[in-house]
Amino acid sequence: MDDTICAIGTLVGESSINVIRISGSESINIVNKLFNRDLTNKDTNTITYGFIMDKNEKIDEVLVSIMKSPKTFTGEDIVEINTHGGKMAANKIMELLLTNGARLAEPGEFIKRRFLNGKIDLIQAESINDMIESRTEAARKMSMKGINQELSKKINDLKDNVLPIIANIEVNIDYPEYEDAVIVTREIIKEKMSYIQDKIKELVDTSENGLIIKNGINICIVGKPNVGKSSILNSLLGEDKAIVTDIKGTTRDIVEGEITLNGILINIYDTAGIRETNELVESIGIEKSIKKIEESNLILFVIDSSSEFEEEDKKVLEEIKDKKVLVVYNKTDLAKTKIKELDKFESIEISSKEEDKIDLLKKKLIEVLHLDDITNSDFTYISNARQIALLKKCLEITYKIDEEIKNEIPVDLIEINIKDLWETLGEITGSVYKDELLDEIFSKFCLGK
Ligand SMILES: Nc1nc2c(ncn2[C@@H]2O[C@H](COP(=O)(O)OP(=O)(O)OP(=O)(O)O)[C@@H](O)[C@H]2O)c(=O)[nH]1
Ligand SMILES: [Mg+2]
User: Fold this and answer.
1) Which ligand 1 atom is the nearest neighbour of the CA of 352?
2) Beta-carbon contacts of residue 75 (< 8 Å; ≥ 6 apart)
3) How far is the CA of 264 from the centre of ligand 2 (A)?
4) Which ligand 1 atom is nearest residue 223's CA?
5) Residue nearest to atom 21 of ligand 1 (CA)
6) Are 312 and 275 in contact (CB under 8 A)?
7) Count of CB atoms within 10 A of residue 364's CB?
8) Cα dihedral across residues 248, 272, 350, 341: positive or negative
9) Mind listing the pLDDT tens digit for each residue in 291-317?
């Protein structure tokens, strides 16, 4: 943390500007060596116009921003150089910075310094990464909740509830003569832990929503050949992505597409029609269809309303019987049907050729996937795998404490698990951490972040 680091913070290419960031105690001095004006007397939060020089040669016309410790992104002195866009100027300036005492930053090192200097906690840091990676409006909203400490508040509230229990037990043990200190009994622990357990459970349960917002939902379109699977995919996407013909077995490989519903990413997979076949390529396609069923959150089981419910349909049903299924009766412009065996599933009647029916299908998807419930709430969901794993561990610890209370274990022994709970909550926000963990988290960031 003592050295001064630098990196290009923008995507180097044909853009109007590039921003080079330098952070560390020597940042002003290093840039000063390369600048045609004196920067050492500049106030914090000032911008100076001038030229980056390599001895007597002007390298680029730039703006230099000076931000002095401690009120900066990293908490250290920061200099930012706005160069012209394109590769050459930024790369040349980087070369000069590196030969004048700065070191190339590792991925995520600026934000790591921000964390280590106490400006943000780990939940915020991980949310910033999520913001960079977010691809939908819902994902952006959720990341912003994390950056804005709304998730951290929830974890800190839990910690604030756990700590007094530990403190009180310690006082009871160390100073038994303090008569005004409440004696913490198993009943008191039980009552307090019940609130904490409920809150943790709520966070774990709603993390499912967080994962949906982050990763999207996988929908797989299945059915026997020729029922209109690829036509439905194309209509949902609004483009001719998959080949459609009236020949059975047209689709061989999985065709993927994406839409957003309620701001949530929906990955749609059109698959090869499932049937008995000796044709090698088709049978490989069918194997892939069956595998895709496993990986999907929802199956659209497409039925051709103008044909009989045949053995082939029953085979498909066999493959999807344990999954969440929406039956799509397609081709209702030709005929209408209702299959008794499928009554237990949600269903919809459509024609892939009619736009208003496709809109109804989208509405139905929002309904069966409960997307309104996810996006009508306040987006304060945990969606990070590390945080979810730790929360689940916290929940396990609360169950252990329940068990100990039931078995009338002495309070000072129960305290061991309460302390473990406190530490595990601390790991979530990063008040307790190991260096290897930080390396793993911050190396996921891009260079210059
Ligand atoms: N009348 C009518 N025809 C449709 C409808 N949907 C699809 N078709 C026709 O049905 C035929 C098969 O459509 P596809 O979308 O290729 O069917 P598929 O299920 O993908 O077929 P495979 O890829 O062979 O499994 C084509 O001729 C489509 O034009 C519909 O709603 N109404
Ligand atoms: Mg097809």
Assistant:
1) 31
2) 69, 113, 114, 117, 118, 119
3) 25
4) 19
5) 226
6) yes
7) 17
8) positive
9) 999 999 999 999 999 999 999 999 999
What CA–CA distance (Å, rounded) separates 406 from 409?
Answer: 8
Residues within 5 A (CB) of ion ligand 2: 229-230, 250-251
Cα of 339 from ligand 2 centre, angstroms:
22
How far apart are the CA of 306 and the centre of ligand 1, in A? 11
CA dihedral of residues 230, 231, 232, 238 (deg, nearest 10): 110
Q: How confident is the model at residue 436 (pLDDT cuts 50, 70, 90)?
A: confident
Helix (H/G/I), strand (E/B), else coil: 13: coil
CA distance 163 to 338: 60
Report which bound ligand comes closest to the CA of 228. Answer: 1
294 alpha carbon – ligand 2 mean position (Å): 19
Q: Which fold has domain 144-430?
A: Rossmann fold (3.40.50)
Q: Is the pTM of this model over 0.85?
A: no
User: What are the residue ranges spanned by the domains of the chain?
Assistant: 5-121, 144-430
Q: Which ligand lies nearest the alpha carbon of 333?
A: 1
Q: What confidence score (pLDDT) does residue 1 get? A: 67
The rounded distance, in Å, linking the Cα atoms of 270 and 272 is 7
Nearest ligand 1 atom to the CA of 246 is 27
Lining residues, ligand 1, CB within 6 Å: 223, 225-231, 244-246, 248-251, 273, 330-331, 333-334, 351-353
Q: What span, in angstroms and rounded, lies between the C-alpha atoms of 404 and 411?
A: 9
**Amino acid identity, residue 327?**
V
DSSP letter (8 states) at residue 267: E
Q: Which ligand ends up closest to the CA of 226?
A: 1
Percent of the chain with pLDDT over 90: 85
How confident is the model over 185-241, as pLDDT tens digits? 999 999 999 999 999 999 999 999 999 999 999 999 999 999 999 999 999 999 999
For residue 340, the 8-state DSSP code is G
Distances (CA, A) of 308 to 228, 236, 274, 276: 15, 25, 16, 17
pLDDT (0 to 100) of residue 439: 85
Residues 66, 45 contacting (CB under 8 angstroms): yes
Ligand closest to Cα of 223 equals: 1
Mutation probe of ligand 1 site: the residue of 222, 224, 226, 229 with most atoms within 8 A of C-beta: 226
CB-based contact 290:220 (threshold 8 Å): no
Instruction: Ligand 1 pocket test: pick from 222, 230, 231 the residue with the most ligand atoms within 8 Å of its Cβ.
Output: 231
Q: Please state which of the four CATH numbers 3.30.1360.120, 3.40.30.10, 3.40.50.12780, 3.30.43.10 is assigned to the domain occupying 5-121.
A: 3.30.1360.120
